[in-house]
Amino acid sequence: MGKDVLGTVYETLLCSPGMNEAVKIDLKISRKTVLLLNSVIEGSLAKEGTTTQDLLKLVPQEEIEELKNFSDECLRKAGLKDLSEKMKTLNF
After folding, report:
1. Taking burial as the number of CB atoms within 10 A of a residue's CB, which of 43, 52, 69, 90 is the most buried?
2. What is the pLDDT of residue 19?
3. Domain boundaries, the chain
4. pLDDT at 79
5. What pTM did the predictor assign?
6. Rounded Cα gap, residues 65 and 85, in angstroms
C-alpha cells in the first residue's frame, strides 16, 4: 500500500502547475560530489525492484533521458567524463 500512496503523491507533484518550466541552477560543487552524483543517478536508474524504479515508471522516458543528460553534462563540465567511463570498466 505504501508504494501506491507514494506513486500517487509523486504523480500529483509531477502534474502540478509549473513543473515543466525550466529553471537555471548555478552550482559550485566539488568534483568528488559530481562523480558521486553521477554514480547515484546511474545506479538508481539501473537497479531493478527499488522504490526509485517504481517511481521512474511514472515518469516519461524523455524526462529520464533529460536526467541522464544532466548527469553526463555535470561530468563533462567537471572534466570527469573519461575517469567515469574508466571506473565503469572496473565494476565487478
Report:
1. 52
2. 87
3. 2-88
4. 94
5. 0.74
6. 18
